[in-house]
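Q&A log
Question type: sequence-to-structure
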Amino acid sequence: EKYLTIRALYEDKDENKVKISFDEKAKIAIKEYFGSVYTKEKKVTYPSKQKVKGLLEMPAGINIQTGKVHYWFYDWKNSFVVIECLESLLRDYPGKEIYVIMDNWSAHKSHDVKVWNALHSRMHLVYLPSNASFLNKIERVFSFLSRDILQNSNFQTVREAMERISNYFEKEGSIMV
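Response status: OK
Response body:
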């Protein structure tokens, strides 16, 4: 079990195992973004230099069996944020074995995360091979989020961006099914 392949984990149908693909969305700058604008009347331009209205970090995970997206908002990211997200998953899936598939970012493999993980036997951290982010299904969710919400946006505040992102995930429910 210690050396489960990613493929075997994705294909495992055991109802007692929850498999979460987890990563952090790259820092989201709250500013005016370009996107698809279809108009014949005028040319739309976006300022190359803009004042950023705020920054947002968004760790997220997708349950690869159900498609449910778990997401959190933070001002920064580090190993303590990762631990808070993992603790949230433990609360969301009581009594289940949880396998979290993640990349090799140093905060994912920090001493603090290792110590925390040793104290939580239901949580199994599965690390992707280096340079294999394409195996992490949450990356597809981030791509949908960028296309559907962030492109062509002009949020005025971080709070507004958080609300739109939350509405998107609540409305879409399971975007992977």
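Response note: The chain has five helices and five strands.
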